[in-house]
Each structure stands twice: as structure tokens, then as C-alpha cells.
Model the fold of this input.
Amino acid sequence: MRKKHIVFISAVLVSLCSIFFFAQKSGAFIGSGYDDGISLYSVDAKELSLTFDEYGYVFNDIIAGKSDVPRIFAAVNPKNIKDLKKPKQKQTLFLKMMLPLTLRANEDILEDRKKLIKIKKDFDAGNSLSKENTEWVNNLAKKYKAKGEIDEQLKKLYVRVDAVPPALCLTQAVIESAWGTSRFAIEGNALFGEWTNDGTGIIPAKRSAGLTHRIRAFKNLAGAIKSYMRNLNTHRAYAKFRKMRATSREEGKTLSGSNLANAMTEYSAKGQEYVDSLHSIINNYKLAALDKVQLKK
Done:
């Protein structure tokens, strides 16, 4: 009887492993937050790097415009990323990890923007919104903190519901998380140093006396990126960023991370010095090219 139990348990474990493997391959594994690609839940940096290589994910080819970005979504920041001895290996892994997730987050935003533009166009033409579209706009307005009557909501949403250039997103993640090696990035997938006062998150080791804020933590990297983009798209401190982005849209230009970095003086107490650091990283690592790449269909 005991032998049968052992055989049965072994069979169950094999089945579970098969399901886990299939889920990773099919994209059904939801660790990354997305189900339309390959989700990788690895806390080991070398393992994640090797997996990217196995799928033919070559970052230099992306920069050179030779390939679209594969839909490979890392769930979490590797716990031992700081143990990678070669700086270039660490930096490349971080950028490869961040890029697909950034593009995927923008896809969702741009899908909403496409619908929003159609609804706004109909409304501006004097047509009444359907009950369904009115409800959709109201829900989107809550998400993007766009208060007012329906016409005011549509005007505000038109400026707020838009993508964040990958070059800017990745560069800010590099600075705020020290290439994914910061304590906040490792313990809570916190890539952008977002503060929270809701009692959750990670307590900064050097928090000044009298302050009660914590650093917002996330269950996965996708959550951190979505929160960062929502922050830029809603907080009053980044109104200049949104205005500059809207101007680029009106002029028919590709959104430029290097250009919009000029609006990030309020993101850090360092002000213009912070902006200069953004430009330096974008230029040194040729990240401006990422503003024109896309995920594989």
C-alpha cells in the first residue's frame, strides 16, 4: 500500500511539473501579469539570462532595428542580480527584462487611447454617448483622476491616456533601482522609488526622522511599471511631461524619451542634475532607439 502511495504522489508531482512547464510555454502562467506571451518566473539572474538567450533575444539586434522584441515577460526581479560580476552582463539583463514589459504596458494604454479617440471624435461631432461608452469613460476617468463633466473628462483623458516612451521608462528604472540591484528592487520589485503612506511597502533604512512614508512594493515587475506609468499620467507634478507629449502628438512626432526627459525635474530632488543623468544614460546606452521598437505580433 505504501509503495502505491509513493507511485501516486510521484505521478502527481510529474503532472504538476508538466502543467507548470506548459503554462510557461503557453503564457498561461500568470506570474508576469500577462497571458499573451512567455512568462518567466525565475529568481536566479543567470538562469533568466540563459533563458533569454535560448529564445534568441539579442538586445543589440533590437537596438539596431534588426528584430522586434519577443513577448517574453519576466515575473520578478532576480534576487541575485547584483551577484553578476560583469557590469555589462548585469546591465543587459536588466534592459532585456524591462523592455518587453514596458512595451506590453504601453500596448494596454494605447488600446484604451484608440477607443477614447473614437469616442471623443463622436462626442465632438455632436453625437450623444451610449450608456456603455459613458460608463467606460467614467471608469477610465476614475483610473486617470480626470474629474468633471463628460466633456471635461474627455479633454483630460485625451492628454493623460497615452504611452510612456520606453527609453524614458527604462532609464528611470536604471537610476531609481541601480540596474535592479537596490534593496527595494530585490525585496519588492520596486523599480521607480514610488512613495506610499498607506502603511504597506518597504521602510527605507535611512528615512529621516518624522517621515512615515514607505517605498511601494509590487508582486511582480509588471505592477511596478503600470504604477509608474499611471503616476506620470496622473500626478500634477508631471503635467509638463503630459503637455510636451501632447504637443509631440499634435505635431505627428514619435514620442521621444530623450525629449520628454526634460520634463522630469520634479521626479527627483536633484532637479536638472537628474535630467542630465537621464540624458547621459539614454545616450551612452543608445536607448533612444527603443522608442521605435515594438513587440512581435
Remarks:
- Strands lie at 38-40, 72-74, 195-196, 214-215.
- The CA atoms of residues 50 and 93 lie 10 Å apart.
- The chain has a mean pLDDT of 89.
- The two ends are 52 Å apart (CA to CA).
